[in-house]
Design goal:
4-stranded antiparallel β-sheet; 0% helix; mainly beta; single chain
């Protein structure tokens, strides 16, 4: 299973960006998916998460500015980020709790997978 994130870049304060993440591989089902971020010198933190039934959870720092969405048919999630602030600058990682098929027919395993990270820089 692979997660491919995209959409990062440089944006001015107050601007918007949209991040996308696509999961691929021997996927049986995907449970929760989410976005985390890690700023220089800080620990990785949860930004937003979404369940398979599209229930969402947000960090207090992004509530009202960021929106997470999901397309179960395409195994993708997106993070719409509005009203960006310099403190949103970080590497953003997508994450998925996946049950995947193994080489043994009929058997599956469950694990957490991470995307490669995409840099978001908010600066004037």
């Amino acid at each position: 299973v692979q997660l491919q994130a995209s959409g990062g870049g440089l944006v001015q304060p107050g601007g918007s960006l949209r991040l996308s993440c696509a999961a691929s591989g021997e996927i049986h089902t995907i449970n929760d998916m989410g976005w985390y971020r890690q700023a220089p010198g800080k620990q990785r933190e949860l930004v937003a998460s979404i369940t398979s039934s599209s229930s969402t959870n947000y960090a207090d720092s992004v509530k009202g500015r960021f929106t997470i969405s999901r397309d179960n048919a395409k195994n993708t999630i997106a993070l719409q980020m509005n009203s960006l602030k310099p403190e949103d600058t970080a590497v953003y990682y997508c994450n998925a709790d996946v049950r995947y098929r193994t080489i043994i027919a009929g058997f599956t395993r469950r694990s957490t997978f991470w995307g490669q990270g995409t840099l978001v820089t908010v600066s004037s």
